[in-house]
């Protein structure tokens, strides 16, 4: 797709620029506990402010369902936002109308304002054209820098882009370029790692990937479902036995598409699900009736590392085992470090995303070594499913 970026903006001194950002950050005791999403908006907001624009931030916070709740006001994150930006930010308790217009009148060129939680208005999630026109009346340009909300066709993510000249912010631009390199027009061979607990949560992902990639590596609890579908006894492992036909259909589709599916052939098992219990490393055909498969075994991980060494592109979503507990983090950490090393040496483009994935890569200490790590959850998953993303499609200028 083709989209405008901040490079395409002309002189914006004094111009009113709406920027859709992601402020849906975790909080505890009234304080932001993870500033990742705040840091992500820094390049775009700083660049626009430095160029003299009046920057008007739009964001949602929580799920207020179209009603105002003081504990879900975006003002809750104002202090943390100002600290990350290193600039003062005016809070405006509305998103449209005279109060917004008056507030903009107070702003000097290069100043920043944070408008109230867009989801306080029912028209936000309904993508109400009337609300979009009311908001747009106080702006000259629209910039979307919130890929994580791009799978929602809301007023602030999609509607505004059809009224005001629309551009991708720096974070959105980086995300779209990374995704294009990973699955849009990737360099082959392409490998995908898909892990997590359940096949049922990633059926669309798996069905899409077998048509897109050369190697599909399945780990986590969902691998047990595929093993069971092949007639292997997985003991007391997490497994969706009722999805055996679905798993076999995915394997058949992979065969037709020429995609090689990699399932573990040795595994780490235990009869207890806790940190550092007694464990066994066994062939998948040797899992005892009272055991649980909790990680991919070392021989399989070594073979998977060899697969990655033959690939040029990697997409990763989900851990290979119960990585939150030692020693069941071993497979995820080992393969992630292999991918990181290949990326550092320039032989692999590696793109990863999803909440558990981000945590797993951080645990492995390789977040900075991957080509791109997306903090988007639902949007990244829907992209892997091959579904259209309204907030992205609205930026398309072709």
SSE layout and pairings?
Layout: E1 16-20, E2 27-28, E3 31-32, H1 36-40, H2 42-50, E4 54-58, H3 78-85, E5 89-92, H4 98-106, E6 112-115, H5 122-125, H6 129-136, E7 141-144, H7 155-159, E8 166-168, H8 170-184, E9 190-194, H9 203-209, E10 215-218, H10 220-229, H11 244-257, E11 260-262, E12 266-270, E13 280-283, E14 292-296, H12 298-309, E15 313-317, H13 330-344, E16 349-353, H14 355-364, E17 372-374, H15 378-384, H16 390-393
Parallel strand pairs: 1-4, 1-7, 4-6, 5-6, 7-8, 9-10, 9-15, 10-11, 15-16, 16-17
Antiparallel strand pairs: 2-3, 12-13, 12-14
**Per CATH, what is the topology of the largest domain?**
Rossmann fold
Amino-to-carboxy terminus distance: 7 Å
- Supply the CATH superfamily name of the largest domain: Phosphoglycerate kinase, N-terminal domain
Oligomeric state as shown: single chain
Number of domains as seen in the coordinates: 2
In what order do the strands lie side by side in the largest sheet?
Answer: 5-6-4-1-7-8
Rg (CA only): 23 Å
Strand count, sense and closure of the main sheet?
Answer: 6 strands, parallel
Overall 3D shape: elongated
CATH architecture descriptor of the largest domain: 3-Layer(aba) Sandwich
